[in-house]
Specification:
220 residues; alpha/beta; Lambda Exonuclease, Chain A; six-stranded mixed sheet; 23% strand; binds iron/sulfur cluster
Length: 220
Amino acid sequence: MERIEEAIEKKVEVMTPARERKLGVYHVSDIVKCPRYVYLDFFSTKKNDLPDSIRRIFAIGHLIHEFIQEALIENGVKKSDIEYKLLKDFVKDDIAIRIVGSIDVHLGDTIVEIKSSSRTGLEKVRDKHLEQANLYLGLQDRGAKKAIIYRVCKDNLKSSTTEHLFDQELFDKQVDWAFKLHQWLTNKKFPPYIPKKASCFMCGKRRECIEWQKQKKEHQ
Ligand code: SF4
């Protein structure tokens, strides 16, 4: 059984690759995520230190994602409407940044974001997911009017949905936040702790984050 465990471990590793990083280019998820995580993802050379059990949960999420996308393609959705890539440039005070992302599924006037969840996660949509959907709506140019956050339970594939209409005011704040993030990164300033954005329990950079915080205090 050791052989199976090893194979699973290797597969989980391949399914959660490190993202290539470039200053000035931010993924939609960077904007809704804890800014400290993004900072460490840019500058730290250490690998994520999530326990195997949590990495496997993420892998299940990937599998569910692929399963639903495959089911849609097999039932008439065009491949070009799956993982549709987005890219938009923004300039403020002569500083340019780019926000990129990809929409899980584009169906007519709707974009769909697939999120795997626990049984209790079906009951309420997470703020982070609504924010992500808003960014996707603001970045896309295919005329989508609304976003659906389609949550699927990892235990039994039951689902629930939440609809989100584009909020321009929120989008402007999100773009401002991306510029703020860019400033922390270009100035190599470790960002503040933002409770609303932090998910420390599921964070692969928790140990490192504590070390950086300590170093920051020592240099003050
Ligand atoms: S441990 Fe918490 S504060 Fe630190 S990077 Fe992770 S989510 Fe952010």
